[in-house]
Amino acid sequence: MSIVYSRNRNRKDREKERKLKEELERETEKIEKEGENDLNNYIRIREELKEIEQCRCMGAIVRSRARYVVEGEKCTKFFLGLEKSKQKRIYLEQVEGKNGEIITDFVGIAERVQEFYRDLFRKEEIKEESMESVLEKVEARLSEKDKEMCEGNIGTGEIEAAIAGLGRNKSPGIDGIISEFYIEFKDELVPVLDRLFRGIEERNELPADMSTGLVSILYKKGNRDRLENYRPITMLNTDYKILARVLAKRIKRVIGTVVGNTQAYSIPGRDIADITSSIRDTIHHMKERKGGIVMSLDLNKAFDRVDHNYLHRVLERMGFGNRLGGWVKRLYKGAVSCVKINGIVTDTFRLERSVRQGCPLSSLLYSISAEPLAQVLKLNNKISGIEIPGGQVSLLYQYADDTTVTVKDRESVLEVVESVELYGRASGARVNIEKSEIMYIGEDSGGRVEIGLKEKKDYLRVLGVNLGIKDKEGRDMQLEGIVNSIKKTLGFWKHRGLGLKGKVVVVNALVMSKFVYVMNVMDVPERVLKDVDKLVSEFLWEGKGVRIAREVMENEYEDGGLKLINLEKKKKALRVKMMTRYLRNRGDHTWKVFLKEAIDKCGGCGESGVFMKLKKGMLEGVSDFYKEMLGSWGEFVECVQYECKSVNQVWEQPVFLNPKIRWEGETVYNRLMWRAGFRKVRDLVYEYVPGFMRAQVIVDEVRDKGDEIWLGTAEGVMEKIKEGMPKEWMGMIERENEADEEGDIEMYVGEGERSMKLTSVKTRVLYKCLGKKDVRRPAAEKVWERVMNEMDVRGIWKNLRVKWNSSECENFDFLLRHNRIFNNLIISKFDMNVDKKCDVCGVEVETCMHEFLECRELKTYFERLKDLISRCWEGSFVERMEWKELWLFGVTRRMKGCNVSLLNYMLSHARFAVKLRRNMVHYEKRKADVWSMFRSGMKRDVHMTHRYIKKEILLKDFIEGSSLIEIGDNGEVKMNFD
């Protein structure tokens, strides 16, 4: 019934569109013959056609689920083609058979896909003795408290939280019920799910349809004909995912206590950057010292090969109770899947092994299953890892199915291979030899080992980053690839006809994201950032010259910007974020050992060096990455707030280059005293007597080190330190406060109630802090200061983002307020064929102020707008506000009982209509009624918005506080223009 209805409706819509196009052709011919008598019908037809095309475009957006759709994009065939290209990517035209033959027929492809995944999920023989040998190495156990938490009854609060955390706009499972259904009817469904889950536990099994998964395959890389190069993602029913989310939340709270720091995948508080950075620093250390061997192991179909019995045994070994373990067993007991391929669904097959990718539990269960491998390698005394500072050893790093091992010699390599094979016999895991690599560093590794791994001479790819002997060559190769990818992305989007804001969205969301991960773990030269900035500038301004300064575009909205990301500041924010991770816990990952060494080497104050703003010359001798980190931290540390609560903490403070100790606004520094060992406050005070030591003692110590310093110089430095030091510190030193404050000093950013702990601050906040010092005011503010008497021009940016406004109106308002609208006066300066006079009135010179305020053709238009405002909004805006200010910038403050947002929405469309009328005259030589253009444009946009927002939102944002818009008896929107 619904299919027939939809078919009839589509036929009627196509017929309506055809008639409108024919009518438009007749109107165009009429205008060409009769001149500019009446363009209103022409404008009306054109707007109706535009509305139809927008509806078709929105349908394409819904169907294709395009990830980065910019609101208000132009509706073109190019955009609609994006949907088709996305569908085409998942169609298999041929696949490789079991014996290497190529299968091309439709049925044969489907049968091969089913056969491949049935075999992949089929249980293989597991050696019981191998499993016992592996499991006995696992020593970590849940505490009784954590075990009890995991074993509790599933409560309705947990179900509600799981529903609230469901993602919207996601593909449903095989039952077709989307997550939005559960979110919308949460109150009614929570009791139903509660009964369902209790019933499942009583019967000890899931309903058959609930445990059925629909597998969709995603291409990774390599030969497209080989199914091994596709990742199976299982689309599960929403009720299944809700149950899995409840269990996952419990496990997440405790997993960090049983899974070691060598793993970071899905472990709260850990990050992939911890693993990559640790490997990076270990390789750098191996190059600088005695060398070693790096093995990068890829576990073939790791998630899909996890044996269920092995997984349950690991959970039991780690101390998870029978109840939580029982839930995991039920999720996989009797589980079946089918594969969606080329528009059809294969027959179902049993899941005898695997943790389903697509299940909220899969990442946690996989990390748990991989932990015994870490223990097997760590407890093997025949494996020699890489010795690093602090007497520690760097050996193993795991992230999902990627395992990196750093060892000292060839004997250790052989033992690693044997240990991994033991783990495979216990769990079902298998190393993918084709994708695994080995690299030998230095001459002391004991020679090559023939184990089938691909040897890399210069660098290898670890977790998406090039690391190795020739690290700079690998870095440059990777960054070049990223820049080329950015060129390709921008080349794709430049044909979309986006406005300025849409372009910024593309740059921030697509371009900058390509850099973030690599930038987080790899130094990025300034030249690369400049190349990207140039590409972005050409994209924003289409190679026609910059119209608004880059620094202004980077401002917040309220400062006249569009929040365009500054890559250099982003890099610094990421470096500062890594420093905050170090400060939160200074010893849980290998990279922190090397950072600690770098801080001490550069600052000479041990861990207290984090309070210093180091000079550039002091950063020599550390890796390029840590040069960037310590340099960025030096800029940021001035924004940091902290207090010393005891004299011991004061004594540990750096005395030089400490932003807390300033004389005439500058930090204090004396190279000779620093070289002589006067680096902390404790170095300048007597050991047993309160107060600072005499300057002569400093002079003598400097001379003992082979340098020369005048007594007057030493006295001057000491006076600067005393005067610049916080009074609280001086008081503690002079009376030698004995309060012993244990632990690290807590650092904060912000002031007063807005103060936040530095270790918990997000990267975006750090980015904002770095940008606050460099706010550049828009040049247009000076122009408006001259034009608008006694107006606070900084307020004109407050209401630029009008709710529900079209992107074309918003983009136009942005350029207008920046005084960057092209007019004939500007164009005539580089094109002598263009007349300076106004296209509309044909009398006066067309300046910005003339075009939008002073043109005689606007007089009647303004009177009608004033009348409209007076009728539809309570209170007389026209009398209370200067018309020039209201017209150009709208209302920038709230007014009681008044729908200010709708008023600004209306004025934005009214201003844009003026520009549309001018452009029609300029390019088409036709003069239309600006009031009609305004009405048609606003009516179209309001109707489009009405279709895609809920009724209560429409009432709040478009109806209440104004009489301009009403909802008729039939539910249609009515607009009271006259």
Count of DSSP strands:
23
Helix content: 40-55%
**What oligomeric assembly is this protein in?**
single chain
Strand portion: 5-15%
Calculate the mean pLDDT score and round it.
88
Which regions are unreliable across 5 or more consecutive residues at pLDDT < 50? 60-88
Helical stretch tally: 39
| Overall body shape | globular
Question: What profile does the largest beta sheet have?
Answer: 5 strands, mixed
Which class of secondary structure composition applies to the elements? alpha+beta
* Gyration radius, rounded: 34 Å
Q: Any idea how many domains?
A: 5
Biased composition (Basic and acidic residues): 12-31
Pfam family, one: RVT_1
Region (Disordered): 1-31
Domain Reverse transcriptase: 199-467
Quick tags:
single chain; 978 residues; alpha+beta; 5 domains; five-stranded mixed beta sheet; 39 helices; globular; Reverse transcriptase domain-containing protein; RT_dom; DNA/RNA_pol_sf
Provide an overview of this structure.
It is a single chain. With 978 residues, the protein is α+β, with helices and mostly antiparallel strands. It folds into five domains: 2-88, no CATH class; 111-467, no CATH class; 471-565; 585-770, no CATH class; 791-975, no CATH class. Helix content is 51%, strand content 8%. The chain has 39 helices and 23 strands. The strands form eight sheets. Strands 3, 4, 6, 7 and 8 form a five-stranded mixed sheet that branches. Helix 2 (40-64) runs parallel beside helix 38, helix 5 (128-135) packs across helix 15 (410-427) and helix 12 runs antiparallel to helix 13 (322-332). The radius of gyration is 34 Å and the shape is globular. The chain starts with a helix and ends with a strand.
